From TrEMBL:
GO terms for molecular function: catalytic activity; metal ion binding. Signal peptide: none annotated. It comes from Stagnimonas aquatica. Residues 54-113 form the Rv2993c-like N-terminal domain. Belongs to the FAH family. GO terms for biological process: small molecule metabolic process. Residues 120-362 form the Fumarylacetoacetase-like C-terminal domain. InterPro entries: FAH, Fumarylacetoacetase-like_C, Fumarylacetoacetase_C_sf, Rv2993c-like_N, TAT_signal, TAT_signal_bac_arc. PANTHER family: FUMARYLACETOACETATE HYDROLASE DOMAIN-CONTAINING PROTEIN 2A (PTHR42796:SF4), FUMARYLACETOACETATE HYDROLASE DOMAIN-CONTAINING PROTEIN 2A-RELATED (PTHR42796). Keywords: Metal-binding, Signal. The keyword Metal-binding applies. This is DUF2437 domain-containing protein.
Length: 366
């Protein structure tokens, strides 16, 4: 049976579809023009906060974990089959002092630091400017939109993204990902003060989306779950009590062929990590290593109709509405094409916390 959360997500999906067609409802997917927003001053991490970046990589045919420092990787002793296994055992002080023989980054192939057994849960319409431009009031906070992606879409940060033959409107969505630290099997009260007990690390996620599947069919899962539609990494930036506040002021930037398409700060998140984890703990179980993507800023390719067009669209027959949708979207040059190069980066304003850069080339299926 669908939960109340499922029903609310479906209703919000209906609103997204309706607005994209011009039905007079607010748009709450990623359909705004490129925008760079100003952000309130975030709380800074403690001066002694340690920055530890963890990669998962393949070397001599075997997957391993390591601490990356510059262009060198120091392997972590032990056998950790999953992200959950690693975060259960991870100790920031121990990893900060890890020594031994290192490998050159150029000698290895980086893998996704989130393994494909972990849950992939996503938030939608979660940045202030994104909501404002979509005709919504971020201060009202009607509900937190939640959906999932297939675990099989998870891939390495530098993976080529396959554009399926059936997909015409391929879109990008840079997102801050949170990797969970411990199991949740019932309702918990998560606050900014205890968030570090639940979140092990931050990571870059790109929620690639087939809008011509997602919107007409109201299928978030299907439209966002094609293989390679979930690059994660390049590494996990570990967090603890001294550094967790950095989540309030990370800068996100995405470019396509060098052109900035998305630029915003996590200071502008509407539903923060603590509030979201508190809500979801009353809905579902989580395991260490599970991934939550916290939503994307404005600036994606999907277009928003003017208020006048929305009112006009409400009067049109269903078939005609979809014809208009495809006609309007087909004129959007922002949609990704074969050969496009997408780069996504997240870091703190002072550069102390750097989640790295994803680089994806769009390739044709087959």
């Amino acid at each position: 049976m669908p939960t109340d959360l499922d029903r609310r997500a479906l209703l919000k999906g209906s609103a997204i579809t309706a607005a994209a067609l011009g039905l007079g409802l607010p748009l709450s997917a990623c359909e705004s023009p490129p925008v760079q927003t100003t952000s309130p001053t975030p709380h800074a991490p403690e001066p002694n906060a340690m920055t530890i970046n963890i990669v998962r990589f393949e070397h001599q045919g075997l997957p391993r974990w390591g601490v990356i420092r510059g262009e060198r990787i120091t392997p972590v002793p032990g056998d950790f089959a999953t992200t959950g296994d690693f975060v259960r055992a991870a100790s920031i002080p121990h990893l900060a002092n890890l020594s031994g023989e290192s490998l050159a980054l150029s000698e290895v192939a980086l893998l996704s630091p989130v393994t494909s057994n972990q849950q992939f849960v996503c938030q939608g319409a979660n940045y202030r400017q994104h909501m404002i431009e979509s005709g919504m009031d971020p201060d009202v906070k009607t509900y937190n939109m939640i959906f999932t992606k297939a675990q099989s879409c998870i891939c390495a940060a530098d993976s080529e993204v396959i554009k399926p033959q059936r997909v015409q409107f391929l879109d990008y969505e840079i997102e801050l990902g949170l990797v969970l630290k411990k199991a949740i099997s019932g309702p918990v009260q998560v606050t900014d003060a205890n968030l570090h007990e639940y979140v092990a690390a931050a990571v870059i996620v790109n929620d690639y989306s087939a809008r011509d599947v997602q919107i007409p069919q109201m299928q978030f899962y299907k439209g966002k779950s094609f293989r390679t539609f979930g690059p994660v990494g390049p590494w996990l930036t570990l967090l603890d009590a001294s550094s967790i506040s950095v989540l309030k002021g990370l800068q996100l930037k995405l470019t396509v062929n060098g052109e900035v398409r998305q630029s915003d700060s996590t200071a502008n998140l509407v539903y923060g990590p603590a509030e979201t984890l508190t809500e979801l703990s009353g809905v579902q179980n989580f395991e260490p290593g599970d991934l939550i993507a916290t939503g994307t800023p404005a600036g994606c390719a999907l277009s928003i109709p003017s208020p006048a067009k929305q009112k006009l669209g409400a009067l049109l027959p269903e078939k005609k509405k979809w014809e208009i949708f495809f006609k309007v979207q087909s004129k959007r040059s922002q949609y990704l094409k074969v050969g496009d190069q997408v780069e996504a980066s997240i870091r703190s304003a002072d550069g102390r916390f750097d989640l790295g850069t994803q680089r994806n080339r769009i390739i044709a299926e087959g």
